[in-house]
Amino acid sequence: MKRPYTVIVSEVTVDGKLTLARGKSSKEIMQFMDEEANRYLHETRAKMDGIMVGAETVRTDNPYLTVRYVKGNNPTRIIPTKSANIPLTANILGKDAPTIIVTTRFAPREKVNTLKEFVEVVEIGKEEVDLIEMMEFLYNRGIRKFMVEGGSTLNWQLLRLGLVDEVRIIHMPFIVGGENTPTLVGGDGFGSLSEVLRLKLRAHFLRGSHLITEWEVKYEG
Fold this sequence. Notes:
- The protein is of the alpha/beta class and about 220 residues long.
- It has one domain: Dihydrofolate Reductase, subunit A (3-Layer(aba) Sandwich).
- The protein has 6 helices and 9 strands, in the order E-H-H-E-H-E-E-H-E-H-E-H-E-E-E.
- A 9-stranded mixed sheet has the order 5-4-3-2-6-1-7-9-8.
- A hairpin with a 2-residue loop joins strand 8 and strand 9 (about 210-220).
- The longest helix has 12 residues, at about 35-45.
């Protein structure tokens, strides 16, 4: 299968949390990133053809997913959502960068047609977005390298299917706790050591006051 080179990039607390609680915006934690860590994040965006987040991240954080802090072109924004449940006030519907919403034949026709007035909408899958087919579609559209900025469910789905090449973490100096607080990877999880994904540390360094680690995902076989 032809697919883009895929990098998960995330700001994560010392105990692996993405937010202060389920349903809370990650922006509450991200506001404590210093300028150098923000530059690292946006330098990474500027090197990508595409940038992806899940629909829940759009609804909770309302991100722009554009390049700031550094000079560079905005990557194409890609939002998978089986029901096309994207608020019409979402920043990703703006004209500052191209956006592709990937939905399904299950999505309400009226909502799909309304979103098409703002951005490109494609249907890939019947009741769930077919992520493997989506990857091939993106590759054929010229998106050869892209980053994923969450959330935890989308991260799990991509990793479970073997669709991620790197994980890059900006470490935030907090401990949040909470059994139900979202972590870097959600979903069902791997049930045994024989199934878990192994990673190889490629680099670790400081940007400003933040430790950054970059990992290669090592798939078996």
